[in-house]
Amino acid sequence: MKVNGRVATLGESADPDRDWIECDGRRVEPESLVYWLVHKPRGVLSTRSDPGGRSTVIDLVPERRRVFPVGRLDYDTEGLVLLTNDGALTQAFLHPSLGNEREYRVTVRGRPSADTLRQFERGIVLEEGRTAPARIQRPRYDARADCTTLTAVLQEGRKRQIRRCWKALGHTVVRLVRTRMGPLRLGRLEPGEARTLRADERRAVLQHARRLRQGAASRSRRTGRNRQR
DSSP letter at 19? Predict the structure, then answer.
């Protein structure tokens, strides 16, 4: 293995976009970045593979390049999944300190009271601690079905978080669909369909990831200055 014409040392790092990297005399080309938007149906796993042979979101993408889901949806949850090989974007979208928004359409049994909705927004105490503040929008009660459909906007993604929170509040989630991550929206993509991001969507997610990182860096600097005072 060589980097810029010299033999690489153990533990050395290199950037394929800037450095000339060779392996056994052949140049290692930087992998092009790809972005797929997938509508995960219920009953499909949001992982790369399953030892039990169950369907995964990777099976929905016609391209065979190695991509990874940005975050997960549980087996019974539907909606938007982003698949990419862009590690920096993945980290920005998922790191809990950066505050990337996820939006869900939630249907629960019964009619949550105004106080219950406020409890959800303030945060629910789960086994691992209190959830971060969230927003509830447009609750609509269907008396015939005895169900309420609402939009929940979160900035964190704990395992089965929404289902666990509503269970703690005394309501069962009937259906859960992720409709947005950051600037990306599910739109009219049908369950089981996948498509690459449009040029404007790609620019939007990259700009969004950059703003998330800049915001975190700014907050860190302010915290450092406050500690020095």
Answer: S
Quick check: 103 and 177 in contact, CB under 8 A? no
Gap between the Cα atoms of 106 and 136, Å rounded: 10
Which CATH number fits the domain 32-99+183-198+208-220, given the four candidates 3.30.413.10, 3.20.20.80, 3.30.70.580, 2.60.40.10?
A: 3.30.70.580
Three-state secondary-structure class, residue 168: helix
pLDDT tens readout for residues 153-202: 999 989 999 999 999 999 999 999 999 999 999 999 999 999 999 999 99
What lies within 8 Å, CB to CB, of 191 at 6+ separation is 39, 40, 41, 42, 78
Report the distance separating Cα 97 and Cα 219, nearest Å. Answer: 10
- Tell me if residue 24 is catalytic: no
What is the distance between the alpha carbons of residues 216 and 224, in angstroms, rounded to a whole number?
Answer: 12
15, 17, 19, 74: which one is catalytic?
74
Q: What is the distance between the alpha carbons of residues 112 and 159, in angstroms, rounded to a whole number?
A: 23
> pTM to 2 decimals?
0.83
Asked if 5 and 20 touch (Cβ cutoff 8 Å), the reply is: yes
The class (CATH top level) of 101-181 is alpha beta
- Residue 122 predicted with pLDDT over 90: yes
